[in-house]
Specification:
Elements: H1 7-13, H2 16-41, H3 48-59, H4 65-72, H5 76-88, E1 92-96, E2 104-108, H6 110-131, H7 136-151, H8 155-162, E3 169-170, E4 176-177
Antiparallel strand pairs: 1-2, 3-4
Length: about 180
């Protein structure tokens, strides 16, 4: 027989906070799946983590694996695996770092730039289709509300968000404020 959850757990599961967290997670997973499916439909063999890594690398040419991992909010091991695939596919190249002997500097190849540029257009169309049920003013309001929520996150979580295209700026005390 299933155990009856405690009243405090039942109250939490019915709370606005719980519902918001579940909906945000559903939206994140759903958007990721939708974008990756559209990328595949367009013949673009690129996952979201690969695309984000490429976009950050384009903005930070010459970055090391560790720098990219920090900027993307992932472990160096995870970034290493992502970069191995991108390098294998000719989308990223490595060269000796100009100042650090044991570090490799990474750069997106012209093929990598072209692929992520095409992929970003596909992703934007897919995301805009999801937002299409909202008026433009509602979309702007949603983005503003999400930025305010993101600004309330502790510093470690806010740092991870910086890699994903958030426009929120760091503020003193380790928190970020909306733009």
């Amino acid at each position: 027989m299933p155990r009856q959850p405690s009243p405090s757990l039942q109250a939490f599961r019915k709370s606005r906070a719980y519902r918001a967290g579940v909906l945000l997670k559903q939206l994140h997973l759903g958007l990721t799946a939708t974008v990756e499916a559209r990328l595949q439909d367009e013949g673009l063999d690129l996952t979201r983590p690969q695309a984000v890594a490429l976009m950050v690398l384009i903005e930070h040419p010459g970055a090391s694996n560790a720098e990219l991992a920090r900027l993307n909010g992932v472990s160096p091991q995870t970034m290493h695996q992502t970069l191995l695939r991108l390098e294998r596919d000719g989308l990223v190249s490595r060269a000796p770092h100009p100042r650090l002997k044991r570090v490799q500097a990474l750069e997106a190849t012209p093929e990598g730039v072209a692929l992520v540029t095409r992929g970003s257009a596909v992703a934007r169309t897919a995301i805009e289709a999801v937002l299409g049920g909202l008026r433009t003013t509602q979309q702007d309001e949603l983005v503003g509300l999400l930025e305010r929520c993101a600004a309330a996150l502790p510093a470690a979580a806010a740092t991870a968000l910086n890699c994903s295209g958030s426009t929120a700026k760091p503020r003193s005390g380790g928190l970020r404020s909306g733009a």
